[in-house]
């Protein structure tokens, strides 16, 4: 599988580098005065400076839980997700939208998930399925 690319707005590149690099553990790639690339679990994420970024609104619903739209993130393997969840839970500076939980319990597509916001208000979801075959289950 090839990586995807996502360009997203951020209000400050230094706080963005710290969050994605130190908090999430992303490798930092190329950058300029107006953008910086990150390796988010093998995917190219490009943060572009937009000082007037607006936060994602909590106006979507998934399995009875209100989630922010738009949001982005990654589908991980269980060991990666557990490590990330533990890393985030151990910090006191995380802007949690949904702490680690399981949704669609006992149904096709059952998944563990968590939602956080980055310093610019971008909503991120990280999730894991019992098996990758369940990603597109219906």
Automatic annotation (TrEMBL):
Residues 2-129 form the VOC domain. It comes from the Bacteria. This is VOC family protein.
């Amino acid at each position: 599988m090839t990586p995807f690319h996502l360009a997203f707005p951020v209000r400050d590149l230094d706080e963005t580098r710290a969050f994605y690099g130190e908090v999430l553990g992303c490798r930092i790639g190329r950058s300029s005065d107006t953008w910086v690339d990150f390796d988010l679990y093998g995917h190219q994420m490009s943060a572009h400076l937009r000082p007037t970024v607006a936060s994602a609104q909590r106006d979507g619903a998934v399995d009875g839980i209100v989630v922010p739209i738009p949001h982005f993130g990654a589908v991980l393997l269980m060991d990666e997700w557990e490590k990330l969840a533990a890393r985030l839970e151990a910090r006191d500076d995380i802007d949690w939208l949904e702490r680690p939980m399981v949704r669609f319990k006992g149904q096709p597509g059952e998944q563990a998930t968590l939602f956080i916001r980055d310093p610019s208000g971008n909503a991120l979801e990280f999730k894991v399925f019992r098996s990758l075959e369940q990603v597109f289950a219906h």
